[in-house]
Amino acid sequence: MSDEWKASAAGGDEKAWKLLEKTLQAGVVEQRRARRWGIFFKLLAFAYLFGALALFSPALKLGKASSMAESHTALIEIRGAIMADEEASADNIVGSLRAAFEDKKTKGVVLRINSPGGSPVQSGYVYDEIKRLRGEHPDIKVYAVISDLGASGAYYIASAADEIYADKASLVGSIGVTAATFGFVGVMEKVGVDRRVYTSGEHKAFLDPFQPPKEEETRFWQSVLETTHKQFIESVKKGRGDRLKVDQHPELFSGLIWSGEQALELGLVDALGSSSYVAREVIGAKEIVDYTREENPFDRFTKKLGTSVAERLALWMGFQGPVLR
What we know:
Layout: H1 3-64, E1 72-79, H2 90-102, E2 106-115, H3 120-136, E3 141-151, H4 153-158, E4 163-166, E5 171-173, E6 177-178, H5 185-191, H6 215-240, E7 257-259, H7 260-266, E8 271-272, H8 275-283, E9 288-290, H9 297-304, H10 309-317, E10 323-324
Parallel strand pairs: 1-2, 1-9, 2-3, 3-4, 3-5, 4-8
Antiparallel strand pairs: 5-7, 6-10
Helix pairs in contact: 2-3
C-alpha cells in the first residue's frame, strides 16, 4: 500500500469522524432545544390550569354556599394561625360572617375552630364583628365548636359566641400572651462580629436580638404583654359572663390549657358536641352550608413555593408583636 493512498485514507477517516462529530453535536443541540420547548409548554399549560382554577373557584364557592332548604346552618371554618395574611385572617372570617348573616335562609351560625391562636388584633376584629352582627340580627345565634384545638386567639373569638361546644378530648383555653425571640450576643462575641446599630430614638432597637437586653426595656415590654393580656381577659369575661368559674379556679387566665371535659367544668365551654350535633339538635337545621372564604388555588400554590419565607423567618426570630397562644 503506497504512502499516498494511506494518507488519503487517513484524511477520509478524519473527515468522517468530523462529520460524525458534527452530527452528534447537532443531535444534542436539537435535544436541548426540544427539552426547552417541552418545559416551556408544560409551564404554559400549568399556568393556564391554575389561572382557570383561580378564575372559576369563586363561582364554585358560590355554588357551595347555596341551599334548596327553607333554612340551613351556616358553617365557617377557622383553621390554623389567626394572622393577617393567613387563611384564618380577620378579613376572611369577617367576610364569611357577613355573608352568612345576610343570607335569609341562615337559621344559625357555627364557627368550627381548630386553631392555636395568633394575632390579638385579628382575633379582636373578629370578636367585635360577631358582637355587632348579633346586635343587628338577634334571631341568628352564633355557636363556636372546637374540634382539636381552640387556644388563645381562637378561644378569644369563641368567647364572643352565644355558646361554645367541644369534644371531651379537645384542647381549650391558653388565655395568655407571648412574644418570643432569641439572643445572639454570645455567638457574635465568639465569632468576633461587632453589631452596629444607628437609631434616632433611645429605645428604637430595644427588640434587637443581637444586643443584650436592658432591664428597663424588659420591664416596658412586659407591661405591653400584661396590657394585652388584660384586654384578652376582659373580652373573655364579657363574652362568657357568670359561666366562668374564676372564683374556684384562679388559674383560669394563667395560660394553661385544658381538655374539653375539664373546660366544661371550668365554664370555658357550655357542652360537648360536634358541628353536626349543634346544627341538628341545637339550631334545628341539619343542612349545613359552608360559607368559609378560601384562597384561590393559585394563591395557595405560590405560598407553598415559599413566597412567605421572609415572614416565616421574621416570625422564627421573634420580630413581631405579641401573640395570643
